[in-house]
Specification:
alpha+beta; Immunoglobulin-like; 2 helices; 13 strands
Length: 255
Amino acid sequence: MTKQSKTAFARGIFVVFLLVIIPLAQLAAANSVEQEQSEVTPFEAINYFKVRHFSGYSIAVIGFLNPEVELPAIVELAIPAGSEVIWFSEVSGGPIANDPEFTEPFNMRTEHGFDIYTVTLEHYHSVQVEYRTDQNPVTRLSRGVYSIQMSYTPIADLPILRLMTNLPAETIVQDPNVELIGANEEGEPIFFRIYTDISAFQTVQGEIAYFPPAGQGMVAGGNLWSGLGVVLGVAVLVIAAVATFIFIVQKQKRQ
């Protein structure tokens, strides 16, 4: 092979190399950008809220991002597999009409016994999903004391978790580890237990023992899913979400 032929051959190899490597590099860069854009932002806090209605309970899971997170942000919220969602939206902190609602079909997958919903928060730093439950979480103890049981399993490491519920007006809670966050528009106090530094898939179980007014230890029998019941439940969630968000920010500033 002549020197000129060798040079032409080397140039040909170099051109082929460029034709192969450049597209691969571009593809890798595109995949990297796409991965960054689809990265899930973890929550700074989650409220697991057993919402007490007149005749039963629904459950809301409310996730809060750090207020310094830049929007839009992709988040994932998990509830027990097979649960029927009755409300799913970003939380504005104002009237329900201001909450951007997510509509079906939802981006959902089922893993580890959970339905995991993936959404993009574009307007606000918090999101809530409320679902139906037929379970009665209340146990009657001795001497007029009642207990409500709650548990939640985050799917990612979580700095702050609150297990919370609304109870009848004039309820007395004597446990120093149970805190009052405020009241809903019906005058019902909202109590919670706080947990910190929970690992992914670590189940946190807690209860709130309370002394209710006479005859109001448990919810009355009947149909929970009347229109009024659902509306009242949503109102409770909004007020509690706003109060909790402020509480988180103030707690961080104190630390």
